[in-house]
Amino acid sequence: MSQPLNISVVIPTYRRIPELLHTLKVLSECDPLPAEVIVHVDGGDKPSIAAVRNFSNNVRVIDSPGTLGPGGSRNRLLKVAECDIIVSLDDDSFPIDTDFFSAVASSVERHSSAGVIAMNIIHDGEPLIERSARAYPASDFVGCGCVYRKKAFLVTRGFVSIHPAYGVEETDLSLQIIDAGWDIIHDCDLRVRHATTRSHQASPMITASHISNLALLAYLRYPISYLPLGLYHVASRIVWSIRNDRKSGIFSGIATIPGKICRFRRYRKPVRPTTMLRVIRLRRDYHHNHFVISQ
């Protein structure tokens, strides 16, 4: 077994013991290992705390008695991590390749301007994507499989502590990271398996949250000149939900927008218009690159 690398791994969890223990087992089989693995147990979930401690004394556990949600959990995890290089996973996501952490270290060294490095995320039922040396700028990332530079994260306001966070979580932090002068790089040599079919995203609660969170994102981060774009994104999500037979939740999503904006108004800090323009261009190019690689 090689010497551990100077990398922290952070995992938020809540009442998903079998998935979490499987992820921890996969991590323990990597070579080299990371310097530390930290699990945040949300909502006073004592059985999960006990399960992690029984699994290994080498996994650090922090917890919260109240519910922070995924964003609040990641804020805590990223702040307490001891290494500047931090791999973020979900409790049901894990590396595909045993040399994963050496590949992470190499990627960080190659991409010195990257505040976040995105990975190829393969969900259940999807074909395995082959590793590639290709890397390119991206507009966004997915928190169940990415790498943070802690110093880049610390110059942002972090994640909005909201649950469910669909539509705002990583997109919001991406805007902050890019506005602070860092890049987001997608590295096709890094692969994570996300053990879910994402079928839960069809629930009325998720539909409603996605719509209201898009409106919240526009209010928090979009400059005034880009607020019409935010309205367009909300309208597009509503149309998408109708076309994909996810009508339940649309009206409650619209109805909760004013209250959600009022609740989180203290977080408002719009990015610069030049950042928005750059993100729009990156998003266009990223979706093209991702489509080509996925074929």
Structure description:
- The chain has 295 residues and is α/β, with parallel strands linked by helices.
- The chain has 2 domains: 5-197, Spore Coat Polysaccharide Biosynthesis Protein SpsA, Chain A (Alpha-Beta Complex), CATH 3.90.550.10; 200-294, no CATH class.
- The chain is 44% helix and 20% strand.
- It is built from 11 helices and 9 strands.
- Strands 1, 2, 3, 4, 5, 6, 7, 8 and 9 form a 9-stranded mixed sheet that branches.
- Strand 2, helix 2 (46-55) and strand 3 form a beta-alpha-beta unit.
- Helix 7 (204-221) packs antiparallel against helix 8 (227-243).
- It is globular and about 55 Å long.
- The two termini are 36 Å apart.
- The model is unreliable at 291-295 (pLDDT under 50).
Defining key terms:
295 residues, alpha/beta, Spore Coat Polysaccharide Biosynthesis Protein SpsA, Chain A, 2 domains, 9-stranded mixed beta sheet
Break the fold down into its secondary structure elements and pairings.
Blueprint lengths: L4 E9 L3 H12 L5 E8 L4 H10 L3 E5 L5 H12 L4 E5 L3 E3 L4 H11 L3 E10 L11 E3 L7 E5 H4 L15 H11 L3 E12 L9 H18 L5 H17 L6 H6 L1 H7 L9 H22 L1
Parallel strand pairs: 1-2, 1-4, 2-3, 6-9
Antiparallel strand pairs: 4-8, 5-9, 6-8, 7-9
Helix pairs in contact: 1-2, 7-8
